[in-house]
Write a structure and sequence with these properties.
The complex is a heterodimer of chains A (310) and B (281).
Chain A: H1 2-10, H2 21-52, H3 70-77, H4 79-110, H5 117-129, H6 132-142, H7 150-157, H8 169-197, H9 201-209, H10 214-225, H11 227-242, H12 246-252, H13 266-276, H14 280-309
Helix pairs in contact in A: 2-14, 4-8, 4-11, 5-8, 6-12, 8-11, 9-10, 11-14, 13-14
Chain B: H1 2-38, H2 43-46, H3 61-64, H4 66-69, H5 72-103, H6 109-119, H7 128-138, H8 144-148, H9 155-166, H10 170-178, H11 183-194, H12 196-212, H13 215-221, H14 230-240, H15 245-265, H16 267-277
Helix pairs in contact in B: 1-15, 5-9, 5-12, 5-14, 6-9, 10-11, 12-16, 14-15
The chains are: A mainly alpha (310), B mainly alpha (281).
Chain lengths: 310, 281
Amino acid sequence: MAKKKQSYLRGWLGRQGSIKRSQMLFILTIFVPLISLFIIIRIIPIAATLGTSFTNMHLIRPVTKFVGMKNFVRLLEDKQFISAFFNSIEYVVVAVPLEIGLGLLFALMLSRKIKFESLYETLYFIPYILPMVPAAIVWKWFYSPGSFGLANYLLESVGLGRVPWMSNPRIALLATIGIHVWKNLGYFMIIFLVALKNVPAEMREASKVDGATIWQTIRHIELPLIKPIILYGIVMATVWSWSAFTEVYIMTQGTDISTGAEIQVLIYRVFQEAFVYHSMGKGCAISFVVFLVSLVIILVQFKIFRWGER
Amino acid sequence: MKRLATRSKIKGSRIILHLCLLVTSVIMVMPFIWLVFTSFKEKADIISVTPTLLPRVWTLSNYIKLPEVAPFLRFFFNSFFISLISTLFIIIGCPMAGYIFAKYKFRGQTFLFLLIMATILVPLQTYMIPLYLIMKSFGWINTYQGMIFPLIIMSSGIFFLRQNILTIPDELIDASRMDGCSEFGIFWKIIFPLSFAATAAIAIVNWVFTWSQVFIWYLVMANSEKLFTMELGLMYFQRHYITDYGGIMAACVITVLPILIFFLIFRRRIIEGVSLTGMKY
């Protein structure tokens, strides 16, 4: 401990005290370019998103002016933005509990030292690894209207009625969220499974000896122990569902449904404003809202978890 | 007697467990199974009002006509090339940055490291507009370098490699320093080989990521068919052949196939790596 402190005091570089010229050279030639790249690719764009959101930047307009909060004020009156905002909220509210809940359920089932475990694991994981575009195309085809779509055919064959998957915007949005959940479920299952496997077997055995039922063991031993991973999972699930794009984009592409505009989410709006209408300022304003709100949600989630610990 | 009863009870619950797992896992992959069988169906079979899983008549016609309407081989090459270049950068960059964060001490290090960690939580789509403008100022719109550039740094990879390199004992590094090994020599002869398993996991994860998770960036950057990745190609194909379901399904299979094979080969490493890094930037 003391040694560590000393090395800090002795100077800028070098663990053993004196600055090694070779170490300095290594940092200058390798690290500085790497970090500069990182700053160009990540930090500057993230900062510039905020900066650009206060301007009226437009790809076609030659001069860019500072317009203050005008973009944000305009967003409040923009019906498309408002509906996209609430659709994104719905995305988070529906997708996160489903992903975390089902992910936990599958992970708990798989962690019982079961045969063919790796086979099940692989099957659950496959949707996460594969590209979203073909997956969304297949799902969209399942959702096709009438008895033509497989989803309705299956519903009818078990005696249930048809569902207007694509023509009712509320249902179309839920159907799209369904694709998102189906796609990402495997990821959460895997991280929970890895965490559950790290729970010491003695703890399970001990609670069994004490006469605890399997539910009590899960509730009082296993879940509290993997709590940090659950928090991580909730944060990731929130970020991903909050910034979902591809499945929405595919669902709105080239169909004759009237729901195209009604199932859009925030990133879809960003894409439309910036790369279809070339209004970079407005696009950045929406991006910044996305960024800010996700930050607030994450902080609240951390607070709730901390609070639960006391 | 009692013991036998509990044993059979355990066996019963095992069977129920297996049943649950089997049903849900089959549901998870059902869309892909259905997709594959559909791509071998004839047109009349596909739009039949009483669909069956297996084709009534097997046909390859959906696949045979694909190369005529869209250059999927080219799309495959583009996806491959982008993943390859990006992964090469990751293989060199992540261990180097990880090494410096793990074994060096300098002012601002903690801050920089936290900054890198924080960007893991910010998805690319939220800052793609300024990124696009930067690429535009470089004149890199609609080029390979523009598509690859944001993918050559992987924050979660740097974090993962740092954690891994921390476990390499300092004595090893100090000893080779005594022997007159240069800093780059230490990296190349000690750090890189010892952390290679971690680097390989990161590289494979990055390959899958660049192949199938950054669709929106490719969509923004590439606007000529020559640069389309497989997903972009598939999207334009399905836009133009909207009623040709057989063709679309065959194109979907072609798009899914390379990464599926890759996954089945590197299954263990991918699952391990993904559960550790999250596979987002």
